[in-house]
């Protein structure tokens, strides 16, 4: 069928069949005929398929891209793309629709760079700064959900306190910048005063085109969920956290069922894990409901030390908690940590799905977050 113009199979049936095929095999059908190629490039189908894709975990470690399907334990490992070879570390990633916004540190110039990357399609676009990037930046990626899902934008929050102490950095005031792929340019968002800060372990969650972070007031102890709406270009306090979070406790944010947030909480004693979920984020008032309350002496401690990377998680099939975390090794003379993926059932049954291996704590390029939740997709990198 390689030279055929059209398939004899009805296009509706082909589309429904394609929706059931794992994405790793789907692109092989592009060469079958022009009709199938056009379907796999069609924006409507791309986003329909994306909404059906199962979450994965992605991690960059020691020059390799690791992608894991925690439901079945399948994993792939491939070299980091050539264009990243001069990058010492990818220190932060933010995901939206299979596109990953990466903050990178250049090995030669010691400056920071920003790129958007689709790991599945192996496509990358570098984004030039309005002025410069900093390790203190926070980023978001989303779209105007009133206009079009494929018109992506990047948000940059700069707190005005770079680590290098340079003259340009010292005189730099906190600013909010927006990058529009459609126009390939940055612009300032005016009239925005921030009296809050994002919690550093939280790199943000993109849901329905908007960004969400765990944040805290600059002069008060309360912790809450902060959002940025790309359609109105405004920040909004979504809700307070439904629990008190101690210094040694673990709180991790994720999306839930496409249009909600979930929040995992583990007390430092580590015998219990709670998962809270919101109602729909489009509702006028957003509140939390305790969804899972798992108690077991077998639960892993998800974050035991400030030197360890923070965990990532999502709620999988049958309400299983899928979590990727680092664990200390009992040998005190060993500087390595064990990186593992666990499946935790709502009944407290714990199963180690994948033993990813060891990671050296002495490596300065280690990720601050253990891994990231990721959806492999056919969404093209914006030009």
UniProtKB/TrEMBL annotation:
NCBIfam families: F_box_assoc_1 (TIGR01640). The lineage of its organism: Eukaryota, Viridiplantae, Streptophyta, Embryophyta, Tracheophyta. It comes from the Eukaryota. SMART domains: FBOX. InterPro entries: F-box-assoc_dom_typ1, F-box-assoc_interact_dom, F-box-like_dom_sf, F-box_dom, Gal_Oxase/kelch_b-propeller, SCF_F-box_component. Residues 3-50 form the F-box domain. This is F-box protein. PROSITE patterns: FBOX.
